Amino acid sequence: MRKILALLVTTVVLSNVQAQDRQFAQEMEAALTIHDTSSSVASELVALDRFRALTKKYDREWLPGYWTAYLCTQVARLKGRAPDFPADLEPKELILEAQEHLERASKVKGQKTSVEQSDFHMLQGFIYTWMDWIVASTEAEKKKYDELRQAEYKAAVRENPRNPLMYVMAGIDLTGKDHDYKDMAAGIGLLDYAEQIFDRAPKRSMTTYWNKDFIDFWRSSAEKRLAEMLKQS
After folding, report:
1. Which of 28, 85, 156, 168 is the most buried (most CB within 10 A)?
2. DSSP 3-state assignment of 85?
3. Which long-range contacts (CB under 8 A, 24 or more apart) does 187-194 make?
4. CA 179: distance to chain centroid?
5. What is the DSSP letter of 130?
6. Do the Cβ atoms of 41 and 84 come closer than 8 Å?
């Protein structure tokens, strides 16, 4: 009888855990969908607030904080680009908030695999880019954040040379205006390859694949420049 009761208790506990896991995944997906379909600062702020709420609701989970850090950068970048950007919203504060969320996510996660550590380095490097562009007020500070960004990206490659997040950033770099047609083609190829890796994940919200957002824009731009380049040669 005791064995049966113990089995029933275990079954109930496991069922509750599975239900909570499903709810967490569904709420993460719903929050990211708002971002993915956003067409205004207002909707981006809704997505950011949703992720902020998830970091509090699921305070033992690290992914909400990781994604909140990324969303902070994406709202901050809209300053000067979107007419509906709130006058009382300070991009500098958003970038500092991004740093806080990433640090908290890292603390909650604790011990990491090499792949996970690499992904944390990638997002940290990306945040340092915005520290350079938005937070820094002197050339010395800009240089500091640029050096920190490079250090984080190198650390990411040491941990995982096959990190698709790095493929995206490297692909974007190779498709810059100062590169020749071979670099452009290689950059487009890296973006394509990263997309293939990203597409294997059924739910991006349960991954660290934040820069999948970048692929369509940068690849389209690169393909147009490459076509023009080849016409002129």
Report:
1. 168
2. coil
3. 187/222, 188/219, 188/222, 188/223, 188/226, 191/167, 191/215, 191/218, 191/219, 191/222, 192/219, 193/164, 193/167, 194/164, 194/165, 194/167, 194/168
4. 26
5. H
6. yes
